[in-house]
Amino acid sequence: MNAEPFAYFLNTTQRRIEEHESTIRRLSSMRGQYHDAAAFDAQLAVDDAVLYEVYMVERPAEDGELSSGLTILHPGKVGDEYFMTKGHFHAILETGEVYYCLSGRGCMVMETPEGEWHVAQMTPGAVVYVPPRWAHRSVNTSDADDLVFFWVFPANAGHDYGSIERQGFRKRVVSRDGVVTVEDNPRWLPPDER
Amino acid sequence: MNAEPFAYFLNTTQRRIEEHESTIRRLSSMRGQYHDAAAFDAQLAVDDAVLYEVYMVERPAEDGELSSGLTILHPGKVGDEYFMTKGHFHAILETGEVYYCLSGRGCMVMETPEGEWHVAQMTPGAVVYVPPRWAHRSVNTSDADDLVFFWVFPANAGHDYGSIERQGFRKRVVSRDGVVTVEDNPRWLPPDER
């Protein structure tokens, strides 16, 4: 039995995939991820804002299948830290991912289990390759515009959020006097001190 | 040793990947692929035209790695048959591919080793999923514009051109009185008659 080919439509003006539902991530789902806990609590008391939306066109978790989709990451900050996705390793660590930035401005923060790190710029037309073994989180560094990107990854990759939830990424992306700045995350520990 | 993340830039205005070289496919590389051999010979005698260009950002042929790139398929016909790519199965048959159409108008012709076929429309914003086991060929059905698309596939998939070169796809895409038409390919044989 062969799977049937299919097509879907990326509406980049309306920032959605036609005839698909999105998953919405709100501020409340990011507790502990932003460094400034007081700012987080104060913002949440006012509004459990939508930080980002994900349209996932998921395929069976089988070798050779590819899942793809669209992420819309809204602009904003918690304290001085820009809105970002939860970020994850792939459960099958040896799987990569391709990101294609359609609009907005931001970056992809990456790191390996060994503690190497890398930050790639995301601007319209940029394609970022996240090699196998690299955890990844996208960050919207615009003050006004959504960061919108298309992505493809092996459908059997899975998501491992746990290790990132415990201590975050090694690097944080913050605004310092209006300048986008990559800083050390004080909560982060090297692998041999965890 | 972890591979380093990297980025590249898709220039959709200039239709190229910055700082990468393209592979060029000319008419002469498609001998035997178009039904009208006389029209093919007559055209080739005048000009060995560039039919399409491929920018490939290739990764090591290892499970979990993804290759990606850009194809620019120019408009034109050989006889009544629209310009098309060579088309192929993946050498590792059980691997899929994701195509994202950036500009132009065309279609993706697909078939399985068992002879099932499918034709998907390619218009700007359309994402076509080619599941594992489906051979695929793109066709530019515009009279004036390039068909431009971005694609991602497992880096270990490989290409098997041979079976398509022998008899083509089951379906051809031709112009009949100015109308884009999907027709049977008279050279094509079902699997049990090959």
SSE succession of chain A: EEEHEEEEEEEEEEHEE
Residue windows where pLDDT falls under 50 for at least 5 positions of chain A: none
Mean pLDDT of chain A: 96
Helices of chain A, by number, come to 2
The SS-based structural class of chain A is mainly beta
Radius of gyration of chain A: 17 Å
The description of the largest β-sheet of chain A is:
6 strands, antiparallel
Oligomer: homodimer
State the helical fraction of chain A: under 10%
Percent of residues in beta strands of chain A = 35-45%
Most extensive interface, chain pair and sizes = A-B, 49 and 49 residues
Question: Based on DSSP secondary structure assignment, what is the total number of beta strands of chain A?
Answer: 15
Strand order of the largest sheet of chain A: 3-4-5-13-8-11
The first-to-last residue Cα distance of chain A is: 47 Å
Shape of chain A: globular
What does this structure look like?
2 copies of one chain form a homodimer. Chain A is mainly beta and 194 residues long. In chain A, 8% of the residues lie in helices and 42% in strands. Chain A has a 6-stranded antiparallel beta sheet, with no helix packed on it. A 3-stranded antiparallel beta sheet of chain A has the order 10-9-12, with no helix packed on it. In chain A, strands 1-2 form a two-stranded antiparallel ribbon. In chain A, β14 (171-176) and β15 (179-184) form a beta hairpin. The longest helix of chain A is centred in the N-terminal third of the chain and has 10 residues, at 37-46. The radius of gyration of chain A is 17 Å and the shape is globular. Chain A starts with 5 loop residues before the first strand and ends in a 10-residue tail after the last strand. Chains A and B meet through β1, β8, β10, β11 and β13 of A and β1, β8, β10, β11 and β13 of B.
